[in-house]
Design goal:
Length: about 35
């Protein structure tokens, strides 16, 4: 029961990490574009 309750939390953490990686990648590309 407890592991089932934690599962959505783990999913959202991994989704947030993917989003953050995408953001960093886009930020680097924008920096190269404007420099």
């Amino acid at each position: 029961m407890r592991a089932f309750a934690l599962h959505p939390l783990i999913d959202s953490v991994s989704a947030a990490r993917e989003l953050f990686a995408d953001y960093r990648h886009a930020h680097r590309e924008l920096g190269a574009l404007f420099s």
